[in-house]
Amino acid sequence: MLKDQNRHPYLLLWIFAILFPLSSLSKLEGDGWTINLHDTYYVISQKEILILHSVYLLLLGGMYWLMRKRKLINGLSIFHVLASFIIPVFLMLLNRSKGEPSTHEVYFKLYLNAFALLIWLLAQIGFIINLLLGFRKNAIRKENT
């Protein structure tokens, strides 16, 4: 499947964009995310997170589809595609509530969340670099012909 993903990463992204909302119908839903800003609580349910993530994957798949004629770096594409759907799933599974966690568990989860988000952010930066290099390679190829 990864060999096809080198040529068609948009197919893999679109497949997972369809699977994420379907997984929200299962009984595996968690509490979602609770964000406290000053005196206001924002609660985002797991279903909303999955739907937003599937829209994000659809947009990424569309961008890869638009770039299908350009020569992208395979390693960056694989890293970006895998990080785009594995890191959010990891974060959702990591942050499921299982009672009252100890202080050590809270800090451990905090560090894992920060590390996972850093990897995800590096993947997005790599995607932008990959797109720019794809445009540059295409411009150089047109100049040579």
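(ticket continues) Second input and output from the same batch:
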Amino acid sequence: MKSLIIPLSIIAFESLIQLHEHNMRYFLYKAAEEESRKRKKPLLVIGRPKGRHGFGDICLDIEGCECIYGNDCISFIADVRELSKLFDEKSVVTFCSHVLEHLSLDDCKKAIKEIKKVSDIAFILYPNKYSLIARIATIWNYHKIETLEYLWSINPKGYFIIE
């Protein structure tokens, strides 16, 4: 029984981290929707929702978005590093979830500049610093560790807001 304590503790800890990330994604998406309504600007969702949150008014992903669930969103296949080619300055409210950690550090910084340029306000999420899954994903280069460390220097809890 004692041999199970550490593995079960790790599983319980990671479950809490994942629950926190799920809740942050939900609450920040709802905040982005509210800001979009208040500011009378379209909600740009960067990164395919995959059932974890809504599509917004405009959904942008490098592989495209399938606007389903009766949603009337506009879908773009585009690169987050080139948003100013698609949108005017301060023309959208942005929700970007779990996208930046897949980019190199230089590309991540460029993407953040582009998000700042086109967004009236932006809600950006990425894996929590304490997530074991995020760290394991760096082994296969799925997540870029130098990018995660940069994002964690902004906020280790896995999100920040740009206004």
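Agent notes: The first strand starts at residue 43 and ends at 46. Helices lie at 2-39, 105-118, 132-139, 145-154. Closing as not reproducible unless the customer responds.
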